[in-house]
Write a structure and sequence with these properties.
This protein has 427 residues and is an alpha/beta fold. The protein folds into three domains: 6-143 and 243-305, FAD/NAD(P)-binding domain (3-Layer(bba) Sandwich), CATH 3.50.50.60; 154-240, FAD/NAD(P)-binding domain (3-Layer(bba) Sandwich), CATH 3.50.50; 325-423, Enolase-like, domain 1, CATH 3.30.390.30. The chain is built from twelve helices and 18 strands. The strands form four sheets. Strands 1, 2, 3, 4, 5, 6 and 13 form a seven-stranded mixed beta sheet that branches. Strands 14-15-18-17-16 form a five-stranded antiparallel beta sheet, sandwiched between helices. A four-stranded parallel beta sheet has the order 10-9-8-11, covered by helices on one side. Strand 1 (6-11), helix 1 (15-26) and strand 2 form a beta-alpha-beta unit. Helix 3 runs antiparallel to helix 5 (81-105). The protein starts with 5 loop residues before the first strand and ends in an 18-residue tail after the last helix.
Length: 427
């Protein structure tokens, strides 16, 4: 590797790229990383972190309503959008700077600028050419936008100059549902337009139905269609997915195979068709989730510089939708389990949680276990309800370890909690 300027060059300063760069440097590699925007990538700057801050803030209105019905005397509250946005931006800047600081402390050469491949071993950034023994592409994705019509994406939703009174959202996947609840919680009139028969395509059918009930309970209008024409709105937002950001990086010219959707084709080691070029995260379109990109980036660093070849199996990935209430899932849905040939047994409970016993809020918890009748193994855990993501994250440990329904049954319940229903479900 001595003939190259660096051992490892990372293109992209998001979660996956930063983790790979830092771990590689800690293994002793000479590392450089380039980012064309802000450190932290989609998740920190324009994704899960600011979105979760929005979720927390937008939940306050319903918490106040519940509190009034529990005996609290609370005057009518008002929400100031500009104050929230300013506070949110301060926190995002803090996190972005933390990413940068961790790279610098690890000894990574940090470059602010747009990097492209001049050839298979040469990266050009800010007019400088740097040769690298290994290259990692971690450029993430970008919002997919409709061909016609005027829409903002989720990127712009974090920086609106004012809160819209009426918003129409095209797309009923997790991004669409999350923002529908966010804007409704802030007081906007929300219409969500689903291009499919049900929301949350690919999720368990019981979760889809419960999610649709909760849209109605929050005053969110759900329509079917492929555009928002005819929907009264101040603002239209597209939430129809994200595409890999692989263009204009010189990848094809360097011999890297790109599929029809623009994703870098890689194997279980995140290795592309060019042996020394790797790719992780959304640019590979394997699983567009931050923890997956982080795990993939760490594995590449361990494989190349830690003497620990580490393949990644994209199985049993916990997923959450931060709607209100939240939705979380791990493992196989009921249709997927049947399609895979399992003889399926379903355990299900739907109930109003204790937290709404006094307020009377029309909101229910749904918990569902998908179990193999032959082996008693738990194939999937699916939940709608407050704290669903926190509960399913813990349940995912058991599912990943291969727990059976009998293991769940012999676990003592922690009462009174919502989570105890996981171990109390009976046929």
């Amino acid at each position: 590797m001595a003939s190259f300027d660096v051992d490892f060059f990372v293109i992209g300063g998001g979660s996956g790229g930063v983790r790979a760069a830092r771990v590689a440097a800690e293994h002793g590699a000479r590392v450089a990383i380039a980012e064309s925007s802000r450190w932290g990538g989609t998740c920190v700057i324009r994704g899960c972190v600011p979105k979760k801050l929005m979720v927390y803030a937008s939940e306050v209105s319903r918490n106040l309503d519940d509190a009034r019905r529990q005996g609290w005397t609370i005057p009518e509250a008002s929400f100031d959008w500009s104050s929230f946005i300013a506070a949110k931006d301060v926190e995002i800047s803090r996190l972005s700077n933390a990413y940068l600081t961790r790279l610098q402390k690890a000894g990574v050469r940090v470059i602010e600028g747009r990097a492209v491949l001049a050839d298979a071993h040469t990266i050009e950034v800010n007019g400088e050419r740097i040769t690298a023994a290994h290259v990692l592409v971690a450029t993430g994705g970008r919002p997919r936008m409709p061909v016609t019509g005027r829409y903002i994406s989720s990127d712009e939703a974090f920086h609106l100059p004012e809160l819209p009174k009426r918003i129409a959202i095209l797309g009923a996947g997790y991004i669409g549902l999350e923002f529908a609840h966010i804007f409704a919680g802030f007081g906007a009139k929300v219409t969500i337009v689903s291009r499919g028969e049900h929301v949350l395509r690919g999720f368990d059918p019981d979760l889809q139905i419960e999610a649709e009930r909760n849209l109605a309970a929050h005053g969110i209008t759900l329509l079917q269609g492929d555009h928002v024409d005819g929907v009264e709105h101040d603002l239209a937002m597209a939430a129809i997915g994200r595409d890999p950001a692989s263009g204009e990086l010189g990848l094809r010219e360097a011999g890297v195979m790109i599929d029809g959707m623009g994703a870098v084709v890689v194997d279980e080691f995140s290795q592309s068709s060019v042996p020394h070029i790797y790719a992780v995260g959304d640019v590979t379109a394997r699983a567009q989730l931050t923890p997956i990109a982080i795990r993939e980036g760490h594995a590449v660093a361990d494989t190349l510089f830690g003497n620990m070849p580490t393949p990644i199996k994209h199985e049993l990935i916990p997923t959450a939708v931060f709607s209100q209430p939240a939705i979380a899932t791990v493992g196989l849905t009921e249709p997927a389990a049947r399609a895979a040939g399992y003889e399926v047994q379903v355990f299900r409970a739907r109930f109003r949680p204790m937290r709404y016993a006094l307020s009377g809020r029309d909101e229910f918890v749904l918990i569902k276990l998908v179990v193999c009748r032959t082996t008693n193994k738990v194939l999937g855990v699916h939940m709608v309800g407050a704290d669903a993501a926190e509960i399913v994250q813990t349940a995912a440990i058991a599912v990943t370890m291969g727990a059976t329904k009998m293991d769940f049954d012999r676990t003592f319940a922690l009462h009174p909690t919502t989570a105890e229903e996981l171990v109390l479900l009976r046929a």
